[in-house]
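From the pipeline queue, job 12 of 40. The input is one protein chain; the requested action is below.

Action: predict structure.
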Amino acid sequence: MRPSSYYVFSEPAAICQNMFLATEALGLGGWKHCGFLSLEILERMGFRIVAANGAAAFGNPIGLDGVFEASCPPYHPTMDAAVDAGLAPPSPDRKETGPVPHRISEAEHRAGTVRLSAEGLACTKGICNYIHDTYGRFPGGTDAMHLMWVMQAHHIDTSYYDRFFGPGTYGPAHAAHMATWHR
């Protein structure tokens, strides 16, 4: 896991905890999973995986085509193009389809951003190209897409718990779930 991931570790945990509490209230079973390689899960979800080469031991999940794409080849022809795309202002034709992360206009938001010098841009591109050329992937040492937590929700088999664990092993919401939600 890259060091920056540690700073955003608690939010996904809290989200999964809230989802777990919701499964309990609905009478569903729930289980939080973490500490795994997310490659197989992302692959089964249809993410594009760039095959391992060079120093990489595993493939690199880089995106879900047309939905969520990493800033690296093959979504961009080169790392220079990926950097340029990341810094480009949005197209005037773009229509907002969801909430924006700020409550000011796009122009006001862009006006307050830090300006990048030509030297800074060249340095950024040089570093990104070095990583991609050296490791055969971007980022070099971690996956472009990574799942820290996965929440599983399912119906519980009350007859199993009745048979092997006895009364009181699940709550009233679980006992009534099928009758309440699946009439």
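Job complete. The helical segments are 10-26, 39-44, 79-87, 106-111, 118-135, 158-164, 172-181.
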